[in-house]
Design a protein that fits this description.
Blueprint lengths: L5 E10 L3 H12 L4 E4 L25 H14 L3 E3 L5 E4 L3 E4 L3 E10 L25 H4 L7 E6 L2 H11 L4 E5 L18 E4 L3 E7 L3 E8 L2 E6 L2 E5 L34 E3 L11 H19 L3
Parallel strand pairs: 1-2, 1-6, 2-3, 6-14, 7-8, 7-13, 8-9
Antiparallel strand pairs: 4-5, 5-6, 10-11, 11-12
Helix pairs in contact: 1-2, 1-5
Bound molecules: flavin-adenine dinucleotide.
Length: 304
């Protein structure tokens, strides 16, 4: 180890400083655990990109970064060691070692709170319309399109789930998918009255002035334009911990299965928030996970 390498020993290290990790840090500190939290980018994670945070009790339609600032303040006030560096080298043995070129953290327990990869879409113009009709979260944004016609694009379970959710709120959903309409993945959508399935299709572009007005679809019959008020693209969703592949802790998409204590199959390693295999990725479920994981770490420390 180089002379300038800082070494920090702690009871628990939390990797990721979004709402899940910050909540875990608050509860760990309250349990009197010596806690280190590591964030490679901006404290607060995705809270910083939510301009109108909805569905979080007591905090309606405010800028998510406000909530991030308050959470960070709480963590700081509780004396948690906060490291604002990337740490992608993780060794899990009897103790857990996290390191980068300048810092080594040695912990008894590890809580993985790294979220999911920033969502993106390869559809032309999609990124330009994020927040103006392109959304990756039906739970967050469906209400903005009540009474409207929207398009959903994808070939996976998340796309189907989001389309089903939207069908209860918006007037009509056009579900565009490269799959066949008889494929078991999308078959359930055939039974919903206000969902039209456009199979063997690919959305190639989004058009509009200030807001989404239409999508361009390529099917076996050629190119068509569909007038819609929104597009929910679900081409890819990936956990962000590819560097942990070696431990076989993640599924094919990079997400982690945990039990009801937020424990992974590896002793002393927990996972929380969006990185976890779960039915709903929201701030409220992320904070829930953080509180439970902290309790699990506390209990494992007091087993003797
Ligand atoms: C556009 C958009 C709008 C949304 N709107 C809402 C809403 O209105 N209401 C709601 O409840 N939810 C909303 N969500 C969902 C919500 O943002 C997430 O469910 C929540 O942020 C998950 O928290 P998390 O802590 O698990 O992950 P994140 O918020 O993603 O935080 C993870 C953190 O880990 C850090 N990290 C990753 N890898 C490493 C590493 N190797 N080392 C150190 N740090 C690392 C990342 O930099 C990041 O800061 C929205 C999401 C998006 C994308």
């Amino acid at each position: 180890m180089g002379d300038n390498m800082a070494e920090i020993k702690c009871d628990v290290a939390i990797l990721g400083g979004g709402p899940a990790g910050l909540t875990a840090a608050i509860y760990c500190a309250r349990y009197n655990l010596n806690t280190v939290i590591i964030e490679k980018d901006q404290w607060g994670g995705k809270l910083n990109i939510i301009h109108d945070l909805v569905n979080y009790p007591g905090f309606n339609a405010h800028d998510g970064s406000l909530l991030a600032t308050t959470m960070v303040q709480q963590v700081n006030d509780l004396g948690v060691t906060m490291i604002n560096e990337s740490m992608d080298d993780v060794e899990i043995n009897e103790t857990i070692i996290l390191r980068n070129g300048s810092t080594t953290v040695i912990a008894d327990d590890l809580i993985l709170a790294c979220g999911s990869k920033p969502v993106r879409s390869s559809i032309e113009n999609a990124s330009k319309f994020i927040g103006h009709g392109v959304s990756f979260c039906a739970t967050c944004d469906a209400m903005f399109f009540k009474g409207k016609h929207v398009a959903v694009y994808g070939d996976n379970a998340l796309a189907v789930k989001e389309a089903t959710h939207l069908s209860h709120i918006v007037e009509h959903v056009s579900f565009v998918t490269p799959l066949d309409h008889n494929d078991p993945m999308v078959d359930g959508l055939n039974h919903l009255d206000n969902v039209t399935l456009i199979d063997h299709g690919k959305i190639i572009a989004v058009h509009g002035m200030d807001h989404v007005e239409s999508v361009e679809i390529k099917t076996t019959n050629g190119l068509t334009t569909l007038n819609v008020s929104a597009l929910f693209p679900y081409e890819q969703a990936e956990g962000s911990l590819q560097f942990l592949k070696v431990y076989g802790i993640q599924n094919a998409n990079g997400f982690i299965t945990v039990d009801d204590k937020m424990a992974t199959y590896i002793p002393h390693v927990y996972a929380i928030g969006d990185i976890v295999v779960k039915p709903l990725r929201q701030v409220v479920t992320a904070t829930h996970d953080g509180a439970i994981a902290a309790l699990s770490v506390f209990e494992s420390h007091h087993k003797g």
